[in-house]
């Protein structure tokens, strides 16, 4: 064993590939690899008594720091790594990119291909576009790294050049936070200190949706739309699906015998079967009659399925013609139908399952309605 804690001692060492080791505690060493030309790098070595294996970790050369501080910096970095291992952390280096890739794989296995693709695109656009951050060891992440990333994301405009909304910022940030939390859960890192406080979402962003169309307004909306769009609007008014989910429905997904609609995986990540009432089933039967199983149930005049680009301008024209409130969209119909379901007293779990969202989101946006319903119910108990 050679003494490596002093600059003069390290200067006398002969260059060699094998590091000069100094013990820190039992099974834990810090090493100095002397290179030709006088430069050197630092290494940590961990001995596992259970497996009788040695594991090594490169610590760097600390060349930006004064010579007399490098031993202390190396021992400190080695101690952090030893602590990481003692808490059950992996001995291999896991980068930010590894954590993102791991999360995408998890989404693909546990949720859906669409959820995995969405996360993958967010990481590509907002995390991995910074090569330095992507290659960083998770164990070396600090709050300042995350704070810098957060500020850059918040200042980054959308693709159309417009400022990023707070809701959009929260969605992109939440995806990254979820990836880091999964890495913590799976032992890639042993603490969330770097991001625990720096990736908290902005508060007061996801407020209740206030724009609501009553039954008469919805009927007027439909009456002022072209025939093909009118059918689509009727569907949105009868089944509280997302517009994209309704547009993707194919004839084979409707069972006329059982009068049920099978909805595949959407944003909520799970498929479900919805039993339709007689009046709603009648609409679906009319649209599906004499059509092949792969045909879209709600079709444009040219026979193709609707999408947001196809309905954007026709919906805007119908809103204007019907003299509906500014800001009325396809999602307004979804919000209005969910509002009606909640106001009838249907439990939030069932509403969430039908509409393809979480109970938490129903309670966030519509909880004030359930509280009012409960209040009215309690009023009937008055003596």
TrEMBL record:
Any GO molecular function = DNA binding
Give the PROSITE patterns listed for this entry. Answer: TYR_RECOMBINASE (PS51898)
Q: InterPro entries under this entry?
A: DNA_brk_join_enz, Integrase-like_cat_sf, Integrase_catalytic, Integrase_recombinase_N, SAM-like_dom, Tyrosine_recombinase_XerCD
Using the record's annotation, list all stretches that form the Tyr recombinase domain: 208-379
Biological processes per GO annotation: DNA integration; DNA recombination
For this UniProt record, give its keywords in alphabetical order, as a comma-separated list: DNA integration, DNA recombination, DNA-binding
Q: Which domain of life is it from?
A: Bacteria
**Record-given protein name:** Integrase
Q: Species lineage, top-down?
A: Bacteria, Pseudomonadati, Pseudomonadota, Betaproteobacteria, Burkholderiales
């Amino acid at each position: 064993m050679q003494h490596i804690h002093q600059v003069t001692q390290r200067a006398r060492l002969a260059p060699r590939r094998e590091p000069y080791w100094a013990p820190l505690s039992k099974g834990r060493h810090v090493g100095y690899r002397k290179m030709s030309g006088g430069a050197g790098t630092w290494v940590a070595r961990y001995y596992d008594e259970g497996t009788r294996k040695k594991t090594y970790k490169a610590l760097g050369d600390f060349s930006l720091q004064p010579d007399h501080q490098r031993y202390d910096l190396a021992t400190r970095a080695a101690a952090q790594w030893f602590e990481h291992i003692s808490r059950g952390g992996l001995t291999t280096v896991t980068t930010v990119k590894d954590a993102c890739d791991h999360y995408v794989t998890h989404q693909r296995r546990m949720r859906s291909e669409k959820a995995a693709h969405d996360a993958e695109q967010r990481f590509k656009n907002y995390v991995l576009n910074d090569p330095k951050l992507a290659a960083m060891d998770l164990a070396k992440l600090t709050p300042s790294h995350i704070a810098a990333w957060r500020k850059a994301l918040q200042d980054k405009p959308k693709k159309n050049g417009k400022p990023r909304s707070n809701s959009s910022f929260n969605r992109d940030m939440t995806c990254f936070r979820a990836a880091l939390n999964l890495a913590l859960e799976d032992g890639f890192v042993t603490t969330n200190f770097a991001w625990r406080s720096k990736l908290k979402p902005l508060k007061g962003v996801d407020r209740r949706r206030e724009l609501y169309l009553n039954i008469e307004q919805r009927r007027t909306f439909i009456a002022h739309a072209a025939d093909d769009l009118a059918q689509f609007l009727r569907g949105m008014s009868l089944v509280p699906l997302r517009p994209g989910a309704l547009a993707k429905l194919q004839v084979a997904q409707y069972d006329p015998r059982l009068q049920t609609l099978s909805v595949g995986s959407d944003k909520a990540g799970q498929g479900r079967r919805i039993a339709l009432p007689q009046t709603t089933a009648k609409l679906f039967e009319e649209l599906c009659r004499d059509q092949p199983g792969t045909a879209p149930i709600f079709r444009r005049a040219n026979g193709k399925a609707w999408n947001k680009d196809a309905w954007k301008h026709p919906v805007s024209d119908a809103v204007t013609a019907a003299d509906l409130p500014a800001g009325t969209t396809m999602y307004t119909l979804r919000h209005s139908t969910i509002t009606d379901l909640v106001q009838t007293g249907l439990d939030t779990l069932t509403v969430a399952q039908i509409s393809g969202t979480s109970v938490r989101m129903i309670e966030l946006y519509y909880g004030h309605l359930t509280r009012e319903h409960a209040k009215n119910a309690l009023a009937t108990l008055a003596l």
